[in-house]
Amino acid sequence: MGNAGGDRIRAEAPRHEFVGGAYCNYKVNASPPWMRLVITPQRLEFQTRGLARFFARGPWVIPHQQVRQVFAKRRRRILAPFFWDVEIVTTDPSVWWTFWSPRRPEPILLFLEECGYAVDWTPHNWAGLPVE
What we know:
Blueprint: E1 16-24, E2 28-39, E3 43-48, E4 60-63, E5 67-75, E6 83-90, E7 96-101, H1 106-114
Antiparallel strand pairs: 1-2, 1-7, 2-3, 3-4, 5-6, 6-7
């Protein structure tokens, strides 16, 4: 006697969500905490949160194959709070994504690396250039 679905155990793909803000040229510009970044091995997905979801067109999806590199940099602001920028470089040079995280970016980068994305751990300056 078995169950109706068979004896297979279905493994769920790893998935993690982070709350912050997002920017992409010509697509979205939402400050924290109005965006959710959902990371899976197959894709990155930006979803609006709260009341913003009634006014936005999303979700916006970036397939894994289109992500060329991911790195973090700290955004300098005169007044607190500080945000960390997680830059997502795509294969299309005219489209880039930035996820604004109110928390340190290491957990985001670590999960992206676990999902097979190309993560650059080198510190970057405000212009996105590696700092040696």
